[in-house]
Amino acid sequence: MPRFNQLSNRIAFNVALAPVSKSAGATTSSAIDLTGYSKAALVVTVGVIASSGTVDCKVQASATSGGSYADITGAAITQMTEAGSDSGKTVMVDFEIPNGKPFVKTVLTNGTAAAIQSVHIIGDQDIRS
After folding, report:
1. Taking the model in full, what pTM does it have?
2. Count of CB atoms within 10 A of residue 22's CB?
């Protein structure tokens, strides 16, 4: 029998970057504590990507909230572009939380132009009994 009878009992939905228009450059979120979660998903939603614009996003992990963060392998979106008709899309990438590194941050990078976007991290507890 599953340990959780409702989705809301097993996930943590975290806002890393509330919907906003960001100009070119990188934005790093605050630390998100995923202690007790084994898997997670990075969710990136973009509105209008300005002409020639690109959007990249990745997740980094650390053992402590104020520690040194390193990229998590496989925890990055495929670059979204204005030329690739990615305006108005949402992408999700599943990843495993590294052992002993439950604190994560997202790094969103807009290249050459502004874009409207939001970034979320969903923590998922293992539901197998």
Report:
1. 0.91
2. 16
